[in-house]
Amino acid sequence: MNAPNPFGWFKKNIPILAQFLDDQLKSPDVKELVILGDLFDTWIIPTTYLPIKSFDRIIANKENKPVIDKLIALAASKDIKLAYVPGNHDMSMSAGDIPGTKNFLETNFPGIRFFSDNDVPLGSFNVGTLVAEHGNRYCLFNGPDLWTNSNSFLPLGYFISRIVSYKVLKTGLEQDPREIFFKFLREFMTKPDFIGNMLNAIASDAGLNPKSKIKLGVPGYPDALSVEEIGNKYKDLCLNWEKSPGNINVPTAIFSDLGNLSFAASLAYFMQNRF
């Protein structure tokens, strides 16, 4: 992809981000820069496009060069440490991808430190009592899915993002996936088959139907799956989440998906014995 696409989020802010990184590089007060994920994006890809499986194409895109150059300079700096913690939009798709992602970043940005757990694409940056992380681990639709496919971490939010990207590609109009998600979440969350119904509604809003195919070919999936098939795969998402370890229940995880992580963070770090 040699230019910003109509469905891409990263367009007018390229020079702003490059300038921000340059400011940190020149600042005498900054000793460490920690990026909490989603700087690289493998999710915002229309359903009719082949998915991005690595960061190669992102780094090779000449439109991104101002940002990439500043990241390389920061990683090589003797005065500033550069750390990277993955988010949901740039997390690995499978366990086998995690070492490759780490190696890719360390090769292309010599000096960068990549913080990720060995078995799942989550990480946290810790200094003394400070803990910093992306936060998607507390989100029902955006945390790594450990149950649906044994070979994949892709959560349902990945497919919702691709459906909304398809809508942007077709209409040429900017869309906020969170607004679309929240609209249909409120409508369907009390229904028995809420996952499937909600996904079908989001697809219909984008001009797709239950039989419409999403191109995949990623770990744990065939070359393509229909919207209906994906809904069926994730129908037990809430039940599986409740069985997972940790204090974050389904209502809190949904609240986190809507952008408020404060309660989940309190449960995870300050009220671990509450439940």
Describe the structure.
With 275 residues, the protein is mainly alpha-helical. The chain has a domain at 14-43 and 55-138. Helices cover 41% and strands 8% of the residues. It has eleven helices and seven strands. The protein has helices at 14-26, 56-60, 65-76, 97-108, 156-171, 177-188, 194-205, 227-233, 237-243, 250-257, 262-269, and strands at 32-35, 81-84, 113-114, 125-127, 130-132, 213-215, 224-226. The strands form three sheets. The protein has a three-stranded parallel beta sheet, with helices on one face. It has a two-stranded antiparallel sheet with strand order 4-5. The longest helix is centred in the middle third of the chain and has 16 residues, at 156-171.
The helicity comes to 40-55%
Largest sheet: 3 strands, parallel
SS-derived structural category: mainly alpha
- Alpha carbon gyration radius: 19 Å
First CA to last CA: what distance? 48 Å
Hey, roughly how much beta strand do the residues contain?
5-15%
Spatial ordering of strands, largest sheet: 1-2-3
Q: Catalogue the unreliable spans.
A: none
Say how many strands there are: 7
Q: Could you spell the SSE succession in H and E letters? A: HEHHEHEEEHHHEEHHHH
Overall spatial form: globular
Rounded average pLDDT: 90
DSSP summary: helix tally: 11
